[in-house]
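Model it.
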Amino acid sequence: MIVLTNVRKMRERDYLYCMKLLFLICLAVQSFSADSLDERVEQLHDTIISIDTHNDFAMSLAFPGRRSTVAKGQVSFELMKEGRLDAAFYAAYQGQGPCTEAGHEKAKFLADSMLRALHRYALENHELGEIAYCPEDIRKLKKKGKAVMLLSIENAYCLGEDLSLVEHYYNMGVRMIGLTHNGNNNVADSAMDSLERHGGLSPFGFRVIQEMNRLGMVVDVSHASRKACLQAVEASRAPIMASHSCVYNLKEIPRNLTDQEILAIAAKGGVVQISIGRYFLSFLPKEQVDLSHLVEHINYVVNLAGVDHVGIGSDFDGGGGIVGVENMGKMKAITRVLLEEGYTADDIAKIWGGNVMRVMDAVRANARSF
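Modeled.
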């Protein structure tokens, strides 16, 4: 009887020992797995080119005393390096005002001022980053380990009705123009305007797209009305982009894209850049919107149109930021969650910048055909 009791006690000790050992092994495996995933993220970013296609850093840079209703300080060359973000489009934004001579002059002043401020920023921080004017520049600066600034305009309001200003902005380094913001202008109708002025693009808007094609500038349809978006796809000889939008079927707001728009953009070889902002992603409170919602929108576009037609456009300093990706310094968290979601390295390379580079290459090639 004593022998049986001792045997039983030994078995209990052995069992407890084995359970403790198993627990420690699980902890070690979990830790190794996490470390391994972090290493994969870093290794991926060594080889891919990551591009964010929209931020609003320029406004506070050019006009530091201007009041803002959104978070600032989300964008800098330093944060790009921290978050392994290679390149970003820095937008010169103008809010929509009256389509008058005075209104257009003010919009042009704002756009020109912001673009000059961005040039100054790049010059003053040249050891950290530089402005790129073509895909080749992006590739070269990636090899140098420098942050890449690309210039864009959010709202063609600054063009007024002067077609020569398209080339003026090209000469200032702009390589993408968003047709509208939150109101109709002389180029196109806006998704956010309650009235339809042109039925999509205006006659001048068609000419603007043709001129952008000639020069080699990406047409950006984020903020454009449904009709304007679809007409822009048809009018452009090159692929187009929605620089910061999300999926209407996941959040039904005018600024998000319908399946018809997504498929039309994809059919022309273009890309839909998913925004990192609660406004676009979910109706939940901001503190509850996280990477799972961002991935939901990415997955939707991938399933609908394919992995060749989706990317990232943060809208930082303009309302962007979610739990887990609060600024540019947190961007590689997206890479990690895409790996966890099962995306391959090739897929992630496309989502992060390969698709945008392909569009930029196509736009440039098309310009050479004129």
